[in-house]
Amino acid sequence: MSARTSVVWTPEFLTYQLSDDHPLNPVRLELTMELSRGLGVLDGVDPVVPEPAGEMDLTRVHTPGFQTAVKSAPEAPFGVGHGLGTADNPIFFGMHEASALIAGGSIAAAREIAEGRADRAVNMAGGLHHAMRDRAAGFCVYNDCSVAIAWLLEQGYERIAYVDVDVHHGDGVQECFYDDPRVLTISLHQHPLTLWPGTGWAGETGRGAGEGYAVNVSLPPGTGDAGWLRAFHGVVPSLLESFRPQVLVTECGADTHAEDPLANLELSVDGHRAVYHALREMAETTAGGKWLVLGGGGYALYRVVPRSWTHLLAVALDRDVAPDTSIPADWVALAATRTRSPLPVSMSDGADPAFERWGGSFVERVDSAILETRRAVFPLHGLDPDDPRD
Fold first, then answer.
1. Residue 214 belongs to a domain with what CATH number?
2. Bridge-partner residues for 6, per DSSP?
3. What is the pLDDT of residue 2?
4. Among this protein's residues, is 277 annotated catalytic?
């Protein structure tokens, strides 16, 4: 039997537009939903329409002073600080409302699972993982990932795993729960020496009672499908099997793709599809099937993100789309009104995401990253970092 899956969506998510020429353009969400509809992925799916996150929900993660700054920033003549008004996080009218709605969307997805209406729930507009307690950062105003996790903790959940596959380190979520052993954060990202925000080293393992519950896998630039999947399977399954989360939360940024303009990993859409399959499997085998799916980064707006996230929605709904599926002509016509860039013709890049599992030796370029992370955190979970069976 297929899992029950809820999809949280409202066209109002498209109001989170930092500026007309900002890399985080909501057209990627519009085109994802249109492509998913065109391929039948959303047939019969009635979206869950969210309410904005309220002050109490946001205060679990963000200071009242920061919330006040976000609300007042559009009318403040001299700026308000808190990371607002920068090139990454320009101020725009309706900023609080748009940001609170995305956070509310992730709470709505969490509520679908917590109240038993769904085993899986998706908020494609979510994944704003860089926002900190008292400041905006990295295109992110409110950290909906942390807000949803904090809401689940408030409901009595005691073990939540967060796996971040965005090309950038999931720093805001890590920091929010850095001393909390109830939340295991795992981030696979491009090496911090080569990409913003410059954090996410293997030695960042948590603080106090949270020691061992922050996990970071730093991948060298140029890592492709085979290396990325080798690293994932060399680290993530063992930790999730040991932790046994009650819910698996995933941030699924598509900016690891070779065509993404802001980073330097080299995954394909086919690789992304394999990643989403692996996350679905982990949810089934380690979290009782409970899977909260969030979007994230992704700046190849027309050629990559809509295809990647349509695969993500399809995987979450158990309606997998074959890689050789043709892109509908109606979607191409719509996308052509938004860009003059060449558009894809199928749901595949023609890549083979096959990989060799890590076997305890240094064979592939990513093996040093795998072993560094395993040696930093595996002993804290009673696992042998040098034994590929663990």
1. 3.40.800.20
2. 121
3. 67
4. no
Beta strands in the chain (DSSP E): 5-8, 120-123, 160-164, 183-190, 214-219, 247-251, 291-294
pLDDT in tens, 86-136: 999 999 999 999 999 999 999 999 999 999 999 999 999 999 999 999 999
Domain that holds residue 183: 5-381
- Contact (CB, 8 A) for 190 and 218: yes
Whether 389 is covered by a domain: the verdict is no
1 pLDDT higher than 90: no
Please count the structural domains in the chain: 1
Sign of CA dihedral 355, 357, 359, 361: positive
As a whole number of angstroms, the distance between CA 289 and CA 231 comes to 23
pLDDT digits over 47-76, tens only? 999 999 999 999 999 999 999 999 999 998
Q: How far is CA 149 from the centre of its chain?
A: 13
CA separation for the pair 137, 165 (Å, rounded): 18
Omega cis (within 30) before 197: yes
DSSP for residue 50: P
* Residue 71: C-alpha distances to residues 74, 79, 94, 337 (Å): 7, 12, 8, 34
Instruction: Indicate left, alpha or beta for 296 from its phi (over 0: left) and psi (-120 to 50: alpha).
Output: left
Average pLDDT over residues 43-47: 97
Q: What is the pTM of this model?
A: 0.98
- Within a domain: 88: yes
Nearest CA to 52 out of 27, 71, 33 is that of 71
Instruction: Single out the catalytic residue among 82, 129, 130, 311.
Output: 130
The answer to the question of residue 155 being in a domain is: yes
14: number of Cβ within 10 Å: 16
User: Does residue 387 sit within a domain?
Assistant: no
HEC per residue, 6-18: EEECCHHHHHCCC
